[in-house]
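User: I'm preparing a small set of examples for a lab meeting where we compare how different chains pack in three dimensions. I only have the primary sequence for this one, and I'd like the structure in token form so I can line it up with the others. Please keep the answer compact; I'll paste it straight into my notes.
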Amino acid sequence: MTDPLLRYLYLDMNSYFASVEQQEDATLRGRPVGIVTVNRPGAACIAASFEAKRKGIGVGTRTQEAQAICPDIVFRPARHDLYVEYHHRIREAVERVHPVHGTHSVDEFSCRLGGRDRPLSAAMALAEEVRASVTRDVGVAMRCSIGLGPSRLLAKAAGEMHKPAGLDWLSPEVMPQKLAGFSLRDLPGIGRNMERRLIEAGIRDVQGLWAMAPKHARRVWNGVDGERFLRALHGEDIPDPATSTHSLGHSQILSGPNRYPDGARLVARRLLIKAATRVRRGGFFATDLSISVKTRDGHRIARATSFAATQDSFTLLESFAALWRTLPIRQPVHVGIMLGGLTDRAGHTADLFEDRPSGTSSAREALCARIDALNQRYGQDTIVFGERPREIAPYTGAKIAFGRIPTVEEFRD
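Assistant: Understood. Below is the structure token output for the 413-residue chain.
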């Protein structure tokens, strides 16, 4: 076999949240650790250390169940600001060895390999150098798996082959045989629903997926994404499609003290204020607001409204209050808000009845920006927009989510 020509190095930190806690507290190393949103009875794990995973504890395991499985498990409340800090430290450690080409989550990075780094032996040596830099400069508890491949998809899949702290490679020359032990769900980008659709289409394993025709993939994925996935699986370097921000929002599971109609309103209101601050920081104007509420019986209630483009929290709160009054809410357990129709300053058009040029801030928008600056300087909630929830959950509006890394400023809003 000829030496494969590789284009990507993909680094994935192992059990990231728990590893950060183990790095911060040496007494946790080698012990089962569960990360929870709040450290209280009945909380669910949002992450677990490898020691806990080996005992069957994972995302969604309740604390009581985890303790029954593993009596010596230690729980720690999530510290999203700390995990973002470590994210930047890891990136810096990687970039001391090789430039980062893509940041894909709080604990995943990819590097695009140049000519001399593309041969297998050179790429493997570079991967070991990257790993050593992370261990030396970030910490001994910060283990990572690294994959190499001609496409980012294959590089990421290679990194999934051996955890923790694995290193492997994939290329078309060894496919699909080298992934014979993978299920469809083991491949990055294939979740439960896509697996179901593939099985319904007669594709039951990686070998079948490898042999799939591009037109068939388009039908299963209901679009060009299927062909893009298949081409990347075959090692083709497929560039990401151009994207733009059209909306942003926040959601939150209500804690016990806030699980009543007015408590839900106050939490949703706070989420809106956080989102409005992000809109201003990004230089956007919003034209749509939507609210959703999930109730204990599983129902979801949603409402939406539109208005002239604005980044004014006062205007948004007025629209929110009018919209909330239309929601018939009983026994709420989860709320979410979304600001949509986002345009930047270049695309902003002032309303006919507004006394300001397009692309500029109104007097009230400028006031809101000054409030943002005071909170950044003196700390979160130095100035608040009126009412606050009975219980304020940690990191409201600034939690790490799939594909989104909060900025440092969001923890001070």
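A couple of notes for your slides: The longest helix spans residues 261-281. The longest strand covers residues 284-295.

User: Perfect, thanks.
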